[in-house]
From TrEMBL:
EC number of this enzyme: 6.1.1.16
Top enzyme class: ligase
Keyword Nucleotide-binding: yes
Protein name (Swiss-Prot/TrEMBL): cysteine--tRNA ligase
GO cellular component terms, semicolon-separated: cytoplasm
Stored InterPro entries: Cys-tRNA-ligase, Cys-tRNA/MSH_ligase, Rossmann-like_a/b/a_fold, tRNA-synt_1_cat_dom, tRNAsynth_Ia_anticodon-bd
GO-annotated biological processes: cysteinyl-tRNA aminoacylation
Single GO MF descriptor: ATP binding
Species of the source: Strombidinopsis acuminata
Record's keyword terms, sorted: Aminoacyl-tRNA synthetase, ATP-binding, Ligase, Metal-binding, Nucleotide-binding, Protein biosynthesis, Zinc
Length: 664
């Protein structure tokens, strides 16, 4: 086994023994490890090198903000690991492109498309009959899934799970009632409107009746490729760095998956039943391994067990233990299939990650990451498979799980239809604002997606942008040079803030404390702005450098971009703003044509505007308007009104923010 471990295992309450790695770079990082349920010292096994595997998407539909919660979070942690702590990562994600959800959705889409073509020759009454039957079937199925109340002496977790399931079921009932209303409204319009409104129940009915007729693997493959492409487009839009390695399970169906399972079968860890292969929990534990390192056995729910086996699980499975799980599934008609010694089939969900992770990263992982909902059964089963295959008591040293994203008290998910897609979110908010929202919340805790959360992020973004942009302006204008008491205090705050940033990042990636500390530093810098031109900007520049360096490291970039042709625009804008301020001061006195001419001449452009012709034209119009107002003897209020138009209209149209302060 590669690497060194502490001689004495660590045993935290409710978790099996954990071996503390030794020998790698100690950067002082303490991070929450799901394997122990506590913060542990992070140490890789091989110097600075870190092997990191993150469970990627199951590409059956568009990605939503719940997915962004995980992938943006791990992008932030990945950036901190490399840019702050100096680790060298091998960062891998997988693409699950063989899965029950993909099979179902791709089949349903194909069958619905076929039905739409068939419906061209049907009258609306015939279509209505099909829709009514589909809605009735869906309604009966939904009511049949009403949660059963636990016994009075059931464990507290079972009661909590029941309360959550009741809440989710009530949400689905409400959504179904809304669906029925939409279908009723559509039936009054046209046949096409009716079909589209009833797409979901129709697709489910068609799949139940005809799903077995879809026999071409290419249907599911094309579906997966479409949503994989969209996933990466969404990640690019969010500023998530591309992985070092991307693996797809379809690429491993050349025999590597089958050989992995065959080895487990040879060691009596797996067994065949009706063409499927199952992992034996009993045989695994008999060999001395710990099963379910992440979630104690007593806390599993039936819903979690079912989720692990998938929507297309065999109903006639002959398992030796009800908790045994499928590593190879005999393909039924309508499901993709590959050859194996057990007959045509496809891999189970959990085995996919074990095969891909061990192929790329070798005999161990430093870090395995994923959403909190993957702890059980997926990650616990993945651990069992990999440890049995590699003959090791500890395959992965640190498991990192991102907290759920909640909306109105429930986890955002496809099954609950309470999600906001990443593309919808980006229509309303910038990628930078979404990243700041996640940075302002603990990475490993649940958080709410709400207007309040995004408003707080937007406010911080505005504050940082304004601070950095204002510094550029003030540096072009007179300011003090010598360090006074104010400057010494600010310089000391910059130093202490930098130390606090490091301490926060070492304490479980405490980015919320980092953002808070930077925000406080920026607030203190405004005292120097208000004291200009006497104040020195030297400590403010150091503060700005710390803010930019830290935010850039976290992926909050381009807060103070240098505009194209800035050298042409800045002289014109400064003259524009200077003339406006001079006129505002002049308006406090008696305005005369002579005085107006004097200030206009004072701020005349000294060179051609170059690329800033639009700005120069607006400046010239302002000059002419001032001269015109002076000639006809307009009162001071008219001059002030025109100055306000510069701020609220002219500069806005130029994409420039002009702000009036107490002194300028």
């Amino acid at each position: 086994r590669f690497g060194n471990f502490a001689s004495k295992a660590i045993e935290r309450e409710g978790h099996p023994k954990w071996l503390q790695p030794q020998g790698g770079l100690d950067a002082g990082l303490q991070v929450y490890n799901s394997l122990t349920g506590a913060k542990e010292m992070f140490l890789p096994l091989d110097g600075r090198k870190v092997r990191w595997y993150t469970c990627g998407p199951t590409v059956y539909d568009v990605a939503h903000m719940g997915h962004a919660r995980a992938y943006l979070t791990f992008d932030i942690l990945r950036r901190v690991m490399t840019k702050f702590f100096g680790y060298e990562l091998s960062y891998q994600i997988n693409i699950t492109d063989i899965d029950d959800k993909i099979i179902l959705r791709s089949r349903q889409n194909k069958l619905f498309s076929d039905f739409c073509k068939k419906a061209e020759g049907m009258d609306i009454k015939a279509v209505q009959k099909e829709v009514d039957a589909a809605v009735d079937t869906a309604e009966k199925k939904l009511h049949g899934k009403k949660p059963e109340a636990p016994a009075a002496d059931a464990p507290e977790r079972a009661k909590q799970e029941y309360d959550k399931l009741v809440q989710e079921h009530e949400l689905k009932l409400g959504q179904f009632a809304d669906l029925k209303k939409s279908i009723a409204e559509a039936s009054k319009k046209s046949k096409d409107d009716l079909i589209q409104a009833a797409r979901e129940p129709l697709s489910a009915k068609l799949d139940k009746e005809l799903g077995h007729t879809i026999t071409d693997n290419a249907v599911a493959y094309a579906h997966a490729r479409q949503f994989e492409d969209e996933y990466f487009q969404d990640m690019d839009a969010l500023g998530v760095l591309r992985p070092d390695v991307v693996t797809r399970i379809t690429d491993y169906m050349d025999g590597r998956v089958q050989k992995f399972i065959e080895k487990l079968e040879e060691e009596n860890i797996c067994y065949e039943s009706r063409g499927s292969v199952y992992f034996s929990i009993d045989e695994f534990t008999k060999k001395g391994y710990d099963y379910r390192k992440l979630v104690p056995a007593a806390s599993a729910s039936a819903a979690e067990m079912a989720e692990g086996e998938g929507a297309l699980a065999a109903e006639d499975a002959e398992k030796r233990n009800p908790n045994d799980f499928a590593v190879w599934k005999a393909s039924k008609p309508g499901e993709p299939k590959w050859d194996s010694k057990w007959g045509p089939g496809r891999p189970g969900w959990h085995i996919e990650c074990s095969v891909m992770a061990t192929d790329i990263q070798g005999d161990y992982l430093d870090i395995h990451a994923g959403g909190e909902d993957l702890k059980f059964p997926h990650h616990d089963n993945e651990i069992a498979q990999s440890e049995a295959y590699l003959h090791t008591p500890q395959w992965c040293n640190y498991f990192w799980h991102a907290g759920h994203l909640h909306i109105e008290g429930l986890k955002m998910s496809k099954s609950l239809k309470n999600f906001i897609t990443i593309r919808q979110a980006l229509e309303m908010h910038s990628a930078r604002q979404l990243r700041l929202m996640f940075l302002m919340s603990p990475w490993d805790k649940g958080m709410n997606y709400s207007d309040q959360a995004i408003d707080m992020a937007r406010a911080e973004e505005r504050k940082f942008k304004h601070f950095l942009g204002s510094l550029k302006f003030h540096k072009r204008n007179p300011h003090g040079k010598g360090p006074g008491e104010r400057e010494k205090k600010l310089a000391a705050l910059v130093t202490s803030t930098e130390k606090a940033v490091g301490a926060s990042l070492r304490d479980n990636f405490g980015t919320s404390a980092v953002i808070s500390g930077l925000s406080t530093l920026v607030s203190e810098c405004y005292a120097s702005y208000e004291a200009l031109p006497e104040a020195s900007l030297a400590p403010v520049e150091k503060a700005a450098a710390l803010v930019q360096k830290t935010l850039d490291m976290l992926g909050v970039e381009n807060l103070a971009p240098e505009p194209a042709n800035a050298a042409d625009y800045i002289p014109v804008l400064d003259a524009f703003a200077g003339l406006r301020q001079a006129v505002r001061q002049l308006a406090k006195e008696a305005v005369t044509s002579k005085k107006v001419e004097e200030v206009v001449a004072q701020f005349a452009l000294k060179k051609a505007p170059g690329a800033a012709k639009d700005c120069a034209a607006a400046f010239e119009a302002f000059q002419k308007d001032l001269q015109g107002l002076a000639k006809v003897g307009k009162p001071q209020g008219e001059f002030l009104k025109r100055c306000d138009e510069v701020r609220d209209r002219d500069f806005v149209s130029l994409g420039v923010r002009l702000e009036d302060t107490k002194t300028s």
